[in-house]
Structures are given as C-alpha cells and as structure tokens.
C-alpha cells in the first residue's frame, strides 16, 4: 500500500505543466489534486512528524504554500485600519511572519489525522462574487472532519486560497481576532504586534 501511495506522488510530479495550468483554472480539481498529494505524505510519512517535525512541515508546505494568496490573506488578518497604518516594510514583514504561522498551524493540524482519506465534494457549489468554496471531508478511522477552502478567482482565470475553515474553525477569522487582541495589548504599535506574533509562533529573528 505504501509503495502504491509513493508511486502516486511520483505520478503527480510528472503531470505536464500545461495540464497543471488548466487545473489551476478549476478550483475543485486544483484542491483535490493538491490534497491527494498531502494524503500521500500523511499516510506514508506520518511518523516523520514525531522524528523530525520541521521536515514533515516542510513537505506539507511545499505542496500547500503556492496555493495561498498570502498578500491578500495577511491584509485581511491585519484589518483595513492596521494594514493602511502600517509601513510598506511592516506589511512585508508581517506577510512573512504570518505565512510561517499559518503553514505551521495547517501542517500540525493535518499531522493529527495521519491515517486519513480526503474526499472532495464536487457537487458542493457555493459562490459569492468572485469567491468560490470547495468542500472536502477528511475521513479518519473514527471521524469525518469537514474542510472548506475559500478561493478567489483572478483576472487570468486562476484561483488561490484566501481562507480555510477546518472542522468549523475559521482560520482567517481566528487569526484576525488574534491580531486585533494583540493590537489592543500593544497600544496599536504594528512593530510590537509583529514581534509578539513572532514570539508566539516561535519564529527566530
């Protein structure tokens, strides 16, 4: 079984770039393809999370990171007031800090569900303006956890993730609330907020 899953991952890597380009214009196929790549990691290398959690998280991040519009998501987390009030340098710094914290959270969450299958609901159709929701069910031995990806459609017809709801927990809103709470605690000092965010996420530098 493990050999089969590894072979599937190898086949994913051999998909021609032209086909990947078309998949990027279909949010359901895009999320399903990348999710199945992650399932291979979860089911064949879950022990790696205990032995070398940073390497495990890197493998998940390599699949997941290119799917997310971190500029837009980070701005949403900061909120209009603090985003407009931040300097260009502060915005760029927060994007990088937030990227690490989001990807770590996502990878660590998935690691809890090592023996899992992910089923994409291709019949689920929820659209609002240029945002489409893609629903999946992550099935473990004992439970089913719903995951909803919110993807934004761009002018070139491609899609990127702008929010994720995992088992009812809205990650975008959760991070936004965290930023607002830090803003009050740090007297709305953006530099201090970013420094605290780094500390909470155990980010060096």
Reconstruct the topology from this structure:
Blueprint: H1 2-13, H2 17-23, H3 27-44, H4 48-51, H5 53-64, H6 70-78, H7 80-85, H8 88-111, E1 117-128, E2 131-139, E3 144-153, E4 159-166, E5 169-170, H9 171-185, H10 190-200
Antiparallel strand pairs: 1-2, 2-3, 3-4, 4-5
Give a quick set of tags describing it.
205 residues; alpha+beta; five-stranded antiparallel beta sheet; 10 helices; 20% strand
Concise overview:
This protein has 205 residues and is of the alpha+beta class. It is 58% helix and 20% strand.
Average pLDDT level: 82
Number of strands: 5
Order of helices and strands: HHHHHHHHEEEEEHH
The largest sheet has its strands arranged as 1-2-3-4-5
| Percent in helix | 55-70%
User: Largest sheet, if any?
Assistant: 5 strands, antiparallel
Characterization of the model:
- The protein has helices at 2-13, 17-23, 27-44, 48-51, 53-64, 70-78, 80-85, 88-111, 171-185, 190-200, and strands spanning 117-128, 131-139, 144-153, 159-166, 169-170.
- The protein has ten helices and five strands, in the order H-H-H-H-H-H-H-H-E-E-E-E-E-H-H.
- Residues 1-20 have low confidence and may be disordered.
- A five-stranded antiparallel β-sheet has the order 1-2-3-4-5.
């Amino acid at each position: 079984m493990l050999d089969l899953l590894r072979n599937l991952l190898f086949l994913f890597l051999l998909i021609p770039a032209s086909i990947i380009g078309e998949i990027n214009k279909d949010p359901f196929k895009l999320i399903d393809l990348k999710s199945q790549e992650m399932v291979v990691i979860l089911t064949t290398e879950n022990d790696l999370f205990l032995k070398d959690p940073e390497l495990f998280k890197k493998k998940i991040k390599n699949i997941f990171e290119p799917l997310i519009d971190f500029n837009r998501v980070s701005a949403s987390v900061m909120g209009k007031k603090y985003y407009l009030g931040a300097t260009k340098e502060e915005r760029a710094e927060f994007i990088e800090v937030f990227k690490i914290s989001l990807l770590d959270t996502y990878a660590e969450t998935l690691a809890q569900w090592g023996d899992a299958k992910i089923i994409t609901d291709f019949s689920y159709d929820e659209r609002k303006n240029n945002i489409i929701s893609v629903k999946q069910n992550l099935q473990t031995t004992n439970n089913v956890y719903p995951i909803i990806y919110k993807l934004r459609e761009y002018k070139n017809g491609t899609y990127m993730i702008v929010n994720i709801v995992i088992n009812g927990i809205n990650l975008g809103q959760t991070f936004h609330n965290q930023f607002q709470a830090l803003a009050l605690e740090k007297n709305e000092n953006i530099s201090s907020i970013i420094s605290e965010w780094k500390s909470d996420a155990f980010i060096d530098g």
